[in-house]
Amino acid sequence: MPLTRPGSVTALVYAEGWPAGASDAVLRSLQGQVARVLSEEQPGDDETEALLVVTSPVVFAHGAVERLRQMAAHPGRVVTRVLVPDADPASVSLWSAGWFARERVGVDSLRGHDLDFDRQRLPHDDARVRAWVRAEDIGVASWRRITNPSRWARTEEARLRLGQALVPVRSVLGRIRRTRSLARQRRRQHA
Predict the structure, then answer these.
(1) Would you place residue 65 in the very low, low, confident or very high pLDDT band (cuts 50, 70, 90)?
(2) Which fold has domain 9-182?
């Protein structure tokens, strides 16, 4: 599901039964991250390359959808699900819109495309078809755990950017640590 054009993600948000204020928080967190947000009754379009399905009240940090897109950009990937603590395992998922067109599966009933749907429709012998991503790795959290969603979104993005910036530093430090450890082992062997 290679996603090259910005804005090629359409979000389908199913807010039925959510607590008051949850839907607004989710929709605000998705602003600027998706091309458009659809309700269950609205049809998708041919320009969409990926469908972000949200069935539980979760908040997206700035850049969370793009991080999810990057993790889902793998040839043959159909669905990438986000593991959100205290939420249904199928509550946030990114689907390949092309797969729905090829398989003639209606996106109008995406709410029901849970793990049982995966098991029935997707091949079991191809590990590339589905993937799981931890919510904290991309900046997604349950709405119930967040007191101030907009402040959380900014701090979470900063935390993720800092972690990304530290990756090269950790890599260098790890190489130094391994080199020193090997040198100590060699000195002990020759002593």
Answers:
(1) very high
(2) Spore Coat Polysaccharide Biosynthesis Protein SpsA; Chain A (3.90.550)
